[in-house]
Amino acid sequence: MLFAFTFVTMVGGNPEHDAYGFRHWKDPGPMSEFLSTGPLGRFEGFLGSLWMASFTTVGPEYVTLIAGEAQHPRTYVKKAFKTVYWRFLLFFIMGAISVGILVPYNDPALVATFITNTATGSKSSGSPFIIAMRNMQITSLPHVMNALLITTIFSAGNTYMYGASRILYGLSLEGRAPTILKKCTKQGVPIYCVLVTMCFPLLSLLQLGNGSSQALTWLTNILTAGGLINYFVMSVTYIFFYRACAAQGIDRKTFPYYGRFQPYAGWIGVIGEGAIVLCYGYASFKPWNVAEFFTNYTMVLLAPVTFTFWKVVKRTRFIGPLEADLVWERPIVDSYERSTLSEPRGFWVEFLGWVGVRREKDGAKAGEGQGEMVEVR
Q1: Residue 210 to residue 123: CA distance in whole angstroms
Q2: Is 193 inside a domain boundary?
Q3: Which one of 17, 171, 181, 330 has the fewest CB atoms closer than 10 angstroms to its CB?
Q4: CA-CA distances (angstroms) from residue 19 to 2, 192, 299?
């Protein structure tokens, strides 16, 4: 819907009949200066956008968490991972291009919301898309967009709640969190993990106060750095995994899903994420700001400390490529998938089942080549 809005309005389909096209890419330009002036300032502007975008770029790590509760993880998780590439292309890259087309970086409402933090009203009214609609004197569509954004926010919140509770549950199983968090309901839901996780969304209420909203900004910076470190660790872990496969003579193509352009993509992740983590809070040095430094680098300082502490206290060691267990719980997964009565189904078959149209195989007739039977219930 937003992409259609961008295209229609840029070719003149707006109340002002202004075919503005890519005007904002020329005036004031595609890149804003930040901290410095000239080419260096524009590069710093790019870095500032990169830090902010890092907070929203998530996806693969949540797909892996679902594997523990999927009926056919080797089938469903593989398909889910493949959609990540399209998600990044369509939602992140195309969304960023649309924002650059619709709103110039020096738009007063945009600056007041995201730069000077002096905007009045809710953050949703400061969305670049909403700002563009109001600049074009479109009165009804912003309300529709805010209503649709509620569904997106609910989906994101549901994902984060699921991910956080399952991570906490996994930590308790490994002895890195209190044992009481292992408690699950009859349906398999880690109830205490969910309750602990649901306490943290209350921090969002800080946004309601002008002064306390700064605390939420600090928390966002800390979480962003944590996410960057997460991707760095994932890249390092993958390189260790790749080395183990090569040392033990295991062909990665025999796995249900394997990464392409490896190990080069893994090293790109290590170097790229490492550079971003180290330079993430460079703005706190120009001029020196103690508060910003610690909000940007708290996780960077804390992660090596906790890692080293666990290595020393638990006396764990790094595993060599030939020692790595690449089988792990594979037999358990094999028996689990064989015990599942239902066959893997595609999205549309699953969707039709939700609305009451069920597609089933008649075992007796299937052997006679009669195919499948469609039953509407």
Answers
A1: 12
A2: no
A3: 17
A4: 17, 55, 46
**Per-residue confidence band for 194, with pLDDT thresholds at 50, 70 and 90:** very high
Condensed to tens digits (0 to 9), the pLDDT of residues 266-282 reads: 999 999 888 888 887 88
**CA 323/CA 3 separation, integer angstroms:** 50
In angstroms, what CA-CA distances link 241 with 31, 58, 250, 318, 323? Answer: 39, 22, 11, 12, 11
371 or 252, which is more confident? 252
- Total number of domains constituting the chain: 2
State the Cα–Cα distance between residues 15 and 120, nearest whole angstrom: 26
Domain with 286, as residue range(s), is 213-325
Model pLDDT for residues 226-244, shown as the tens digit of each residue: 888 888 998 999 999 999 9
Contacts of 6 (CB under 8 A, 6+ apart): 98, 101, 102
Q: Is residue 145 part of a domain?
A: no
- Does residue 282 belong to any structural domain of this protein? yes
Return d(Cα 27, Cα 20) in angstroms, integer.
Answer: 11
Closest CA to 327 of 261, 260, 262, 255: 255
pLDDT band at 123 (very low <50, low <70, confident <90, very high): very low
Give which of 20, 164, 1 is closest to 102, Cα–Cα: 20
Signed CA dihedral, 273, 155, 130, 5: sign only = positive
Q: Domain check: are 259 and 359 in the same one?
A: no
Contact 295, 222 (CB under 8 A): yes
* Helix, strand or coil, per DSSP, at residue 332: helix
Which residue type does 156 have?
A
324 in Cβ contact with 244 (< 8 Å): yes
CB distance 110 to 126 below 8 Å: yes
Asked if the structure places residue 250 within a domain, the reply is yes
Smallest Cα–Cα separation from 266: which of 227, 237, 246? 237
Between CA 267 and CA 295 the distance in angstroms is 27
